[in-house]
Amino acid sequence: MSGDTQVQNPTPAPPSPSKVCLADMNPAELSAWCKTRDWPAFRGRQLFQWIHRGEDFPGMRNLPADMRARLGEIAVAQPVHIRLKRVSQLDGTVKFLFALADGNCVEGVLMHYHHGHTLCVSTQVGCRMGCAFCASTLEGCVRSLSAGEMLGQVLCANRHLREAGDPDPRVHNIVLMGSGEPLDNYDETCRFLRLLREEEGVCVGLRNVSLSTCGLVPQMRRFAGEDLPVTLSVSLHAPNDAIRRRLMPIARVYPIEEVLDASRFYVEKTGRRVIFEYALTEGINASPREAEELADRLRGLQCHVNLIPLNPVAERGLQGVTEDTVRRFQQTLERRHISVTRRREMGDDIEGACGQLRRSTLGRETKDMSEER
To answer: Exposure pattern of 45-82 as b/e (b: 16+ CB <10 Å)?
Structure first.
């Protein structure tokens, strides 16, 4: 495993309750906020542009000095900082541990592809969905992130790319597949997506964004009407309810047919195909029989299956599968005319799976504090 890179003074002091997170706001909202402070409305757009460049108040050079000083007293521009990062020696993937202003932390993964940089973004500190294969959910959900805290992860990644001298130092694609269930933080997730596409900001087209959900059916249907043309990725992981309930507690609330009906609704409403994530788990969902049943379930649905060899979580006791098992499962789906690919594995040497770095870091800190006592 490659070594950790600690970032000097990464965590700001927790803000007082009166401090406003400006990264949560769009240009019009920032302009209106400036007017309430007796500053010209055009200062709001300047603030927005600086924030989306990853700049804090002292570096906002076209703002008056007294305004910058006052802003530092009443507001927060950059609510997220890089606390720790690991760079894979295998493929250059970067795993971030992001520090939030209240002392919590979340993870992000920056992946490099020929079509540009992709960032995996977290939407909550932890997760309450309880999926059996995920480390993020082991301690439940601490809290949801604001739109500005989601945006802050993108700004940190862009800053990392600039400082690394990357010739194209910006995130091009975003996957909402870090810790948390995005549709369990519905309003802030939608606000984040709208901030992303602002032309004066980071300006990431929403067709370059994927949102992963474990299958919150009412929210899936509601999201189809938001005019946010992202790719919906549904964590299916099973061809039937009996298997899905073993892996995903949410299956006890929303049966698989309701999830698939909501997926069909999303396709009809948006014209975009749905991606089904399927983590192959030894002895549970990876046999040719399950592949045949999955093909029957998905027949006629505009979709694509993303096969994921399970990345084992020690506390869960689940096992991954062999390459032969992946290949047979994939071939069965292809023979049944189901669009399918095997997910490319990245960052295997840096605890690339969601939740692992945060959990191991907090575990070490708890141990260190105990020994100090």
So the answer is: ebbbbbbbebbbbeebeebeeebeeebeeebbbbbbbb
